[in-house]
Design brief:
The protein is mainly alpha-helical. It has 16 helices and no strands. It is globular and about 65 Å long.
Length: 427
């Protein structure tokens, strides 16, 4: 995930970085989906042994929320690099880029680990090397780094496997940007770059085919969390960023894809809904069974269509109906504090089960309905506190300050307003 506000794209470009409230709204929607599916897991509802419970069917594929976060990350973080390449300007500075990513991710995460070790997982402090791997968000490379037990198969930070995957993408992005700069420069158009994004998707598909065709998959489950298994979703966001920037710089009008999305934004969401229905059927496998290579591919492409279909009209036609729907104050506020929601919701659920006396997976439907408002309220509260006490103060205190006229800084207000106008026009 690119956590926090969509305003926090990398600095170091004179390209307009106009705020896209709908992207924050989409992030808020994804955060709600994450909380829902994980509470369904903690209460046992999503793991109905037959996989036929109504709620299990409805929420089991809410796991697509992770892939939505990945697409948003690819879009927001690659956009300044794409703009610099298309305009023939210097790429954003690496020092500022990595520093901003560090401030956004690590301090708030460390607060979660501190309290998790204090109240739930004392074992984290028993082995310094283990604790350091967790604090560095490198705990998806060694089996057993998550403090899971047969009685409690999820921990207060199990969800952070995807955060570790995000960190891998953050580290790799400048290298990818340098490679794609050559594909985007020299007036080559979009073709070479789109081919490059397709190649990353092919890597993603090949990774999963290899995993589910391997006899030792169960021996090395950490491979499920590594970046090659998700690079296609980041690449999809990068492609959206490239198309959106390219479209604004065409004197003869935007490409056909952009014109189509502007005219039919709801069709993108209809395609996302249809894909969600497909992956909720046996075509994508049962949620209690390891997928075969065939069902894994159906699941992968279904998740890709859902996440990209939701993001398309927001990126290419932000003034359209879907964009307005996700630009409400509630949705953008949830998006702004979504990193805190993501970090703390499992902690809140563990606390709720401990205080209620239930074991993991025991509460069932009744417990799910009772705990949903409680855990939602507690999670939103802690997410907001994380934002106002940790994330926002650190960003304001330590982010590099630049003058509006600085080539490495923000654009002028007039240029930003022009960019907002172009977004409303769907280009």
């Amino acid at each position: 995930m690119t956590y926090g506000s969509a305003k926090n794209a990398p600095q170091g470009s004179t390209t307009p970085r106009a705020y896209l409230p709908a992207m924050d709204g989409l992030r808020g929607l994804a955060a709600v989906m994450v909380v829902t599916i994980h509470l369904a897991g903690w209460t046992g509802v999503a793991f109905d042994p037959q996989g036929k419970g109504l709620l299990a069917t409805l929420v089991n594929r809410f796991g697509v929320s992770v892939y939505i976060f990945f697409v948003i990350s690819g879009y927001l973080l690659f956009r300044p690099f794409a703009a610099a390449a298309l305009e023939g300007r210097e790429a954003p500075g690496m020092k500022a880029y990595y520093w901003h990513r560090f401030l956004r991710i690590y301090p708030a995460f460390w607060a979660l680990i501190l309290l998790s070790a204090l109240f739930f997982h004392r074992s984290l402090t028993e082995e310094p090397a283990h604790l350091l791997r967790v604090l560095a968000l490198q705990h998806t490379f060694v089996a057993g780094d998550f403090p899971h037990t047969p009685e409690w198969p999820w921990s207060t930070f199990s969800q952070t496997w995807s955060l570790s995957t995000e960190i891998s993408f953050y580290l790799l992005l400048p290298l990818l940007a340098a490679l794609f700069r050559g594909l985007l420069g020299g007036g080559r158009g979009l073709g070479p770059a789109l081919a490059g994004f397709a190649l990353l998707e092919a890597v993603n598909v090949a990774w999963w085919i290899g995993i589910w065709s391997s006899a030792d998959t169960a021996v090395q489950p950490t491979r499920w969390w590594w970046l090659p298994g998700y690079i296609g979703f980041f690449a999809a966001g990068m492609a959206l960023a490239t198309v959106s920037v390219y479209a604004k710089r065409q004197a003869d009008g935007p490409p056909a894809l952009v014109r189509f999305v502007v005219r039919r934004p709801w069709l993108c969401w209809a395609a996302a809904l249809a894909a969600y229905v497909v992956i909720s059927t046996p075509l994508a496998g049962g949620h209690m069974e390891p997928p075969s290579p065939r069902t894994a591919l159906v699941e992968h492409f279904g998740y890709l269509v859902v996440s990209v279909g939701l993001a398309l009209p927001l990126a290419l036609a932000p003034g359209s109906g879907p964009g307005r729907l996700l630009s409400t104050r509630v949705m953008t506020w949830l998006g702004r504090i979504s990193y805190g929601i993501f970090l703390w919701h499992m902690f809140v659920m563990a606390a709720a089960l401990r205080l209620s006396g239930w074991d993991w997976g025991e509460p069932g439907m009744r417990g799910f309905l009772l705990l949903l408002p409680v855990t939602a309220a507690g999670t939103v509260l802690l997410g907001w506190l994380s934002y106002v006490l940790v994330e926002r103060p650190l960003r304001r205190r330590f982010r590099r300050r630049v003058r509006p006229s600085d080539p490495a800084g923000h654009v002028t207000a007039a240029r930003a307003n022009d960019d907002r106008g172009a977004q409303k026009a769907g280009t």
